[in-house]
Design goal:
The complex is a heterodimer of chains A (296) and B (327). Chain A is mainly alpha-helical. Helices cover 68% and strands 0% of the residues of chain A. Chain A has eleven helices and no strands. The two termini of chain A are 28 Å apart. The chains are: A mainly alpha (296), B alpha/beta (327). The interface between A and B is medium-sized, with 26 and 39 residues.
């Protein structure tokens, strides 16, 4: 019987066109906001109009530029030490980004390794690791951060360590679940028939198929970490002053909330917008990578 | 059979599952042998133990519930049940290869087919670079994949089921196995593609001289491909013989019943025939012959003692009391 095969249309584009078609599909608003945040974080020193930690006492608690009494020199006004709020927010992105990226990297690496191991090995190893994850998840994160800060003093490094070490189970659970279903695929059985070792199968056959959902939870968890870092800084056990962190700025504006609400409001808005953008982006990514919704 | 040692010899293989409801004897004392270049078809209903037999041959029985509890599997004279796991890994990849039922899940969606075939070729033939690329294209064209050269960059989801099954075949054959186990490789393909695929497989088998174990429930496929047939019921081989013997003079009522289930145009019937009753619960087998409750010709002896193996003619064996009395 002859095999008749019609020439297929090109389904995958290559080169610059492929990059462009991928970019065009990105959700506009979240991408724009996150790009701005990333640019702020990378080039805070160049973008910010004023140094973030030096205030002019003459210019204390000035309102935003469009409010009466404001000046265009300080677009979003100043705090009670005369520091430019816009500049502090811009520098604050750097803290939020650094903390969340490093904490996610830490939690993601631990969680992925443990999830792959537990899911692939199963049995006792799986049971032990998952109970460990339950324990880690049941730890009151904020309380532990307070204790660590009380013992070791608040520091940038401690915030990352605490968040990273308590967040890994979220990754581990997801990765374990996916591993359990991926390892039932015939290509895993066939790889074993072909004489592949367990570590090879995990690395080569399972891990690449976990990556998409790893990206999704990383994005969504990043929003959570930013919020967490904000809470810790707000409580004074996060990133220590004078480094500008959003949570810290909100805390500092707390007692001015009746007289100078903008001091706390603008960092709050910055945080809310960033979180919203991250969540929207994460949702989009999840739909995009969902094999059920994926276009062939 | 001819005088030299068979490629594969299975003797009294037992694979049990230990479940809460009791011991499930999925494979219960299966014996057969297979010479080089021969094709054995293993047929039976779902749950008759044919797939478990295949998995036992490569020692991939789902653990910890399932375990091979007894028997021998001799591949080229070597008992592979006695091998350590790392030795077993070499045997599996080198000499036994498998093609499975579902082409949707037998390829890794994360890699292009060129990568996946290339990986197998590199591993077993030790080549790289331009030579590797050439061999990949060769492996794909051997399975008659059109414009193989340009399709190496394709991902599994861009291919049809038939094409994917061919890619799986290319991967399986790239390690130049002695034995190919094909577990219902055509069930998910449509009929014309099925025929193409079977022709292709037979052609390659003849060219490379490999032995094939074909697991199927489709007698059409059996007739087209197999030299020998083993009919399985409730974990046991109830009848085994050459394809002609099985089709022309089935000795076991179960084989007869299976053959009657195949719809035929020369036998006008108002409805499709089936075998009355359900396959038995393997955790709770009846005393005597496991087919007796469904057998139209069951005698009282059948319900009491499991029948012995009887040789109906040289090489054609069955486990049935009817054959015993006929002798």
């Amino acid at each position: 019987m002859a095999i008749v095969e019609v020439e297929r249309p090109v389904l995958v584009e290559h080169g610059p066109r492929r990059v462009w078609s991928a970019v065009r599909q990105l959700p506009a608003a979240p991408t724009l906001i996150l790009s701005v945040v990333v640019v702020f974080a990378l080039f805070a020193g160049q973008v910010a109009p004023h140094p973030p930690t030096e205030g002019e006492l003459r210019m204390r608690t000035k309102p935003a530029a469009w409010v009466e009494g404001g000046s265009t020199a300080h677009l979003l006004g100043t705090d009670d030490q005369g520091r430019d709020i816009l500049s502090r927010i811009i520098h604050g992105t750097r803290v939020s980004m650094a903390v969340s990226l490093l904490a996610i990297l830490l939690a993601g690496s631990i969680g992925t390794a443990i999830g792959l191991l537990a899911g692939y090995k199963g049995g006792l190893i799986d049971a032990l690791l998952m109970r460990l994850a339950d324990v880690a998840l049941s730890m009151p994160l904020i309380l532990i951060a307070v204790v660590v800060a009380a013992v070791n003093g608040p520091s940038f490094r401690n915030v990352i360590l605490v968040i990273g070490l308590l967040l890994w189970p979220r990754f581990a659970r997801q990765v374990r679940g996916e591993t359990l279903s991926i390892k039932e695929n015939d290509y895993v059985a066939l790889a074993r028939v072909a004489g592949r070792s367990g570590s090879y199968i995990v690395w080569r056959h399972i891990f690449p198929n976990v990556v998409p959902s790893l990206l999704v939870i990383s994005t969504l968890q990043m929003a959570y970490v930013i919020l967490l870092e904000g809470s810790l800084s707000f409580l004074g056990v996060g990133v220590p002053p004078p480094r500008p962190a959003w949570g810290l700025m909100i805390a500092e504006g707390r007692h001015l909330v009746w007289t100078a609400p903008w001091v706390a409001a603008f960092p709050g808005i910055a945080m809310a917008v960033t979180l919203l953008a991250l969540n929207m982006f994460g949702d989009w990514l999840r739909d995009k990578l969902d094999p059920k919704l994926r276009q062939v | 059979m001819n005088g030299h040692t068979p490629l594969l010899e299975v003797r009294d293989l037992k694979t049990y599952f230990f479940t809460r409801r009791g011991t499930v004897k999925a494979v219960d004392g299966v014996s057969f042998s297979l010479s080089a270049g021969e094709t054995l078809a293993v047929v039976g209903e779902s749950g008759s133990g044919k797939s478990m037999t295949a998995l036992s041959l490569v020692r991939l029985v789902p653990e910890p519930a399932g375990r091979i509890v007894g028997g021998e599997i001799r591949l080229e004279g070597q008992d592979i049940l006695k091998l350590r796991p790392h030795e077993m890994r070499r045997v599996r990849g080198g000499r036994i290869a498998m093609v499975l039922q579902d082409p949707m899940t037998s390829l890794n969606p994360a890699f292009s087919i060129g990568d996946q075939v290339g990986e197998a070729v590199r591993e077993h033939q030790g080549v790289g670079g331009g030579e590797l690329r050439r061999r990949v294209v060769e492996a794909l064209s051997r399975l008659k994949i059109p414009s193989a050269e340009s399709r190496t960059g394709d991902y599994p989801h861009q291919m049809s089921g038939g094409m994917r099954q061919r890619v799986s075949g290319a991967i399986a054959l790239s390690c130049q196995p002695r034995l190919l186990i094909a577990d219902e490789p055509t069930t998910s393909l449509d009929v014309t593609i099925q025929a193409q695929y079977l022709d292709l497989l037979r052609e390659i088998q003849e060219r490379l001289g490999i032995s094939v174990i074909f697991i199927t429930h489709d007698f059409g496929i059996v007739a087209a491909t197999a030299h020998k047939v083993a009919v399985m019921y409730a974990g046991k081989i109830v009848e085994m013989g050459t394809t002609e013997e099985i089709f022309d003079s089935p000795a076991h009522p179960y084989t007869e019943a299976l053959l009657r289930c195949v719809p035929r145009s020369d036998r006008l019937e108002s409805r499709l025939l089936d075998i009355p009753g359900q396959p038995p619960d393997l955790a709770n087998l009846p005393a005597g012959c496991s087919f007796a409750p469904r057998c139209p010709r069951a005698m009282s002896r059948c319900r009491e003692v499991y029948p012995p193996e009887v040789e109906v003619s040289p090489g054609h064996v069955t486990k049935c009391w009817l054959a015993v009395t006929e002798e």
